[in-house]
Amino acid sequence: MITKPPLDRHRAFRLAGTLVGLAVVLGACRHAGDVAVAESFPNDYRQRHPIAIEEANRSIVIFVGQARGGLTAAQRADVIGLAHVWLREGTGAITADVPVGTPNGRAAADSFREIQATLTAAGVPPRGIVARSYRPEDPRTMATIRLNYPKISAVAGPCGLWPEDLGPSIKNKSYFENKPYYNFGCAYQRNMAAMVDNPADLAQPRSETPAYTTRRTTAFEKYRKGTTTTTTYPESDKAKLSDTGK
After folding, report:
1. Angle between helices 73-89 and 105-121 in degrees, nearest 10
2. Ranges of each domain in the chain
3. Are strands 94-99 and 129-134 parallel, antiparallel or unpaired?
4. Which pTM value belongs to this model?
5. CB within 8 A of 129, min separation 6: which ones?
6. pLDDT tens digit sequence for 55-89
7. Does the 41-200 domain belong in CATH 3.30.1330.60?
C-alpha cells in the first residue's frame, strides 16, 4: 500500500498567506469600486444637480400678417418691455431675425422698421440692434420676427433622469443603504434657478446700500432722551372700519 507523504507545514502556511493577501487585494478593489460609484451619485442634491451660471438667450416672437405692416398695441408693449429688460440685464446686442421671400415679407420689413424705432425710443442705442434675414424651411408655416439677446442666467438640470430603479433590486444598492434617488431635488434646483432675479446673488452677496442717516439720527436722539423709538403713523387709523376692538 502506497501512502502520500505528509504536506509540509511551512508550505501550507505560505499558501494560506498568499490566499489571504489575494482576498484582501480583491476586497480593496471592490471597495474602491463602490466608493467610485458612490462618488458619482453624491447624497447632497445640490451636488447632484448644481445650479450653473451661464449665458443664455431671451427672446420674443412677433407675428406679422400678410396685409399688416405694423405692430399691434400688445406687440408694441412687448417690444418696449424687452427694451427695458435689455437695459438692465442684456450682455449683447438685440438680434432681429426678419423673414424674406415669404408672403408676409413686405409686411415684416415694415414691422421691423417700427420695432427698430420703438427700441431706439426706449433707450436701446442703434448699434445695439442687429438685423438678420432668414427664409423659413417650411413655406407653409407663418414666418415671424424673432427678437433675442444674450443674458446671464441660472440653469439646473436636466431633470427626469433615472439611472437606477427606485425599488429593491440586486443592482440598486442605494435602496438598501437608504440613500436618496438620483432625481431627488432636481425640480427644486431648477425652479430656484428660474425664480432668482439676479443670478449673481447665487455666487456672492450684494453690497450694502447707504444708511438712511436722517431717520437713524432721529431714532438715536429719542434713545438719548429716554423716549420710545417706536414709529407712529397718524394715518394708519383711517383704514379701520370701526372702533369695536379698542
Report:
1. 50
2. 41-200
3. parallel
4. 0.59
5. 93, 94, 96, 116, 119, 120
6. 989 999 999 998 887 899 999 999 999 999 999 99
7. yes
